[in-house]
Design goal:
Length: 504
């Protein structure tokens, strides 16, 4: 699993510039879903919905930094309950005291709420920039999170198989890139210098955006990029995609050399996408396909039709029940996700188990102080959408809805919602959304869930982004030395204290 990988930016999806040889090779042996969607286009919320197989409003996945409440059975916990040894390596962005949620082992990752991403430039720690700081990494390659994730993932599987060869294993290798900071070793950046074309409609007049997109752009820290910064930001994003592809290749090749993939289901996906200057927008948290769409490849025993592509929409909430069936485990009751195993294990014409998928985002749902945070009464600060194979309908709180014809308008430029011939279609889609609850219901549930947060919070302050966990449960910072070595900042008004390093 990667972070913020737009499905369009990969060789297997047809991008003529992106180099993803390892994922392309995996795609050749996989079933590929071309309309995979996350249930909430931000990190924590998307991962919460995926792990619980429940829509955002049913598992308190309101935005970043939220907590999986203990009553929710998670995907790794279910596999652990049925004899699997479960392990998470890398970023997961859990909120709250419980940093495991069914994973029995976490040898490396963001165990102290540090978000996982290694800030760059180093002197910007604990923050980091986005496109404005795109460039060559300052961090030694052996310490880069994505390199460590592959190394520790290999170590877990090899040690487990050597120690408990009869026990099945469940591993989530969770990489931080291509999420910002947009930095990589220099060899990747040089490959894309002046080769990445401008994004579609990136010079769009902000006045032509609908109220939701206009609000998001006004809050976006990359809204004022110069043309040069936009170009370098997109180049760096492509470089990050290729860098993490190389890391994934090292993991897959290492497992293959040891004969550990013969009876193994492999899934590649990401938690959400990245706008990358399309429509003049950066980041996620919006209804456009670049943000809600994710790559999704699945291969392994019983999955047939290598190289097949499926156009039917699938949600990340479907992975939990689907893998249960593929592994011969019972599918728990009460999940919103549906089982796609029949489609994966048969090449004849099998009707997809769902016709539409949902996604949602609430700007006022963020649990921390944030530049993009909103108040609940603010106009166009939340959206919910439903997407089927052809149409995408977006319900914007306190603003007019949107309707896009994904077949004839894949760039989502023309809003069809106001056209009389689509009035009945819009009514139908609005009913599907309202069946999950009206906006008043959403606000009530949010308030109820907010009241539960204090009792589940850890009370710990974040340290550096990632930690190692010892077998006895103790943790220690993986990057303390890296960030303590930065140049110290001394405010101008200070008249005494440690001599600042930048002055010698």
């Amino acid at each position: 699993m990667t972070d913020q990988h737009a499905r369009q930016v990969s060789g297997f999806s047809g991008d003529p510039v992106a180099r993803t040889p390892n994922l392309d090779r995996l795609a050749e042996s996989s079933v590929r879903f071309d309309a995979a969607v996350c249930a909430n286009p931000v990190c924590t919320a998307s991962r919460m919905t995926m792990l619980t197989a429940k829509e955002a409003h049913r598992c308190a996945a309101w935005n970043n930094h939220w907590i999986i409440f203990p009553e929710h059975l998670t995907w790794p916990q279910h596999f652990a309950d049925h004899g699997y040894r479960t392990c998470l390596v890398g970023k997961m962005h859990f909120g709250g005291r419980d940093q495991m949620h069914g994973f029995q082992l976490r040898p490396y990752g963001d165990l102290r709420h540090g978000l996982g991403h290694q800030p760059e430039p180093l002197e910007m720690f604990p923050g980091y920039a986005h496109a404005k700081s795109a460039g060559v990494t300052q961090i030694p390659e052996s310490l880069l999170q994505d390199v460590v994730v592959s190394r520790e993932s290999l170590a877990f599987v090899r040690e487990h198989v050597a120690d408990r060869p009869e026990q099945p294993w469940f591993l989530c290798a969770s990489y931080g890139r291509p999420h910002s900071p947009l930095t990589t070793p220099g060899r990747f950046l040089r490959r894309y210098r002046d080769r990445v074309p401008a994004a579609a409609d990136e010079d769009r007049d902000p006045d032509t955006l609908d109220p939701y997109a206009a609000r998001l752009r006004s809050k976006n820290l990359d809204a004022d990029l110069t043309p040069e910064e936009r170009r370098r930001g997109r180049e760096a994003y492509y470089a990050c995609v290729e860098f993490v592809d190389e890391c994934i290749g090292e993991l897959i090749d290492g497992l293959a050399r040891d004969g550990l993939l013969d009876n193994t289901i492999i899934i590649y996906t990401s938690d959400h996408g990245e706008m990358g200057s399309v429509h003049g927008l950066w980041g996620k948290a919006i209804y456009y396909e670049q943000a809600i769409g994710v790559p999704l490849l699945m291969s392994g025993p019983g999955i047939v039709g290598a190289g097949r592509t499926l156009a039917a929409p699938i949600s990340l909430v479907d992975l939990f029940p689907t893998t249960c069936s593929l592994a011969g485990l019972p599918v728990p009751e009460g999940l919103d996700g549906v089982d796609w195993s029949d489609v994966l294990t048969r090449t004849d014409s099998v009707k997809p188990p769902r016709q539409h998928v949902f996604s949602a985002y609430l700007a006022y749902g963020i649990r921390i102080q944030h530049h993009a945070r909103a108040v609940e009464s603010e106009r166009a600060a939340a959206m919910r959408l439903v997407r089927d194979e052809r149409w995408k309908y977006v319900d914007i709180e306190r603003a007019s809805p949107l309707l896009f014809d994904m077949q004839h308008d894949p760039d989502e430029l023309v809003n069809c919602a106001d056209q009389p011939e689509h009035r009945e279609r819009c009514t139908h889609y609005q009913q599907l959304i309202d069946e999950q609850g009206l906006w008043a219901d959403i606000h009530r549930r949010l308030a109820e869930d907010q009241a539960r947060v204090p009792e589940l919070s850890s009370g710990l302050k974040p340290t550096t982004p990632n930690q190692y966990q010892l077998p006895d449960g103790r943790t220690f910072d993986a990057e303390e030395s890296l960030y303590s070595a930065r140049w110290l900042y001394l405010p101008r008004e200070a008249t005494g204290g440690i001599i600042p390093q930048q002055w010698g």
